[in-house]
Write a structure and sequence with these properties.
3-stranded antiparallel β-sheet; binds iron/sulfur cluster
């Protein structure tokens, strides 16, 4: 008896110069920072930059101002992007932010779809990536909801009277507690 083995879907990233890692500011949430900080054994302050928040209700109120958290940049790209002989690779692949894993997918009307106006050189195989991406997108969405609620709680409690370092400690403790209770 012969079995038909379906080919794994092709990653367009193989033929790409990772333009997404150069073009976008990578905003991160509490779980992203937790995974990166633990995976790299680094304090979040080392790899985060503060961006002035536009949304008053969602920005973090700290002594430094109303801010959002993003990955630092180096040579006009994400600091974790490395180039060797014109080949680019992510050096934190195992714990890269949810938004990096999601790109260029999104959920529309409960269905997996590709964002409009993407930087990728070709379209992605939506059927081939469905099994991998739908659970990831749902998890990522719930982590952003967790983060938004956490920021709202912090803002209500401290109203800009504490520093970013104190916020980061508060945030990482809350992630740890939520992971322990799962
Ligand atoms: S996600 Fe798209 S733009 Fe980013 S590396 Fe892959 S193919 Fe290139
Ligand atoms: S963390 Fe990795 S995948 Fe995400 S932007 Fe940086 S280099 Fe690219």
């Amino acid at each position: 008896m012969t079995f038909l083995v379906s080919n794994p879907p092709k990653f367009p990233c193989v033929d790409c110069h990772t333009d997404c890692c150069k073009e976008y500011t990578i905003f991160v949430n509490a779980h992203d920072v937790y995974r990166l900080s633990n995976g790299l054994n680094l304090k979040p302050e080392i790899f985060l930059q503060l961006i002035g928040a536009k949304d008053y209700s969602l920005g973090i109120k700290v002594e430094e101002g109303l801010v959002d958290l993003a990955l630092k940049q180096k040579n006009n790209a994400c600091e974790f992007l490395e180039e060797t002989d014109d080949v680019y690779r992510c050096t934190v692949n195992d714990f890269k932010p949810g938004v990096c894993k999601s790109y260029p997918f999104e959920m529309k009307d409960e269905k997996l779809s590709q964002m409009s106006d993407i930087m990728c050189p070709t379209d992605w195989d939506l059927i081939g990536f469905k099994e991998m991406m739908i659970p990831h997108l749902k998890k990522d969405e719930s982590e952003w909801v967790f983060y938004d609620q956490l920021v709202k709680r912090w803002n209500l409690k401290y109203d800009g009277e504490k520093s970013l370092s104190e916020f980061l400690k508060f945030m990482l403790t809350k992630v740890e507690l939520s992971l322990k209770s799962q």
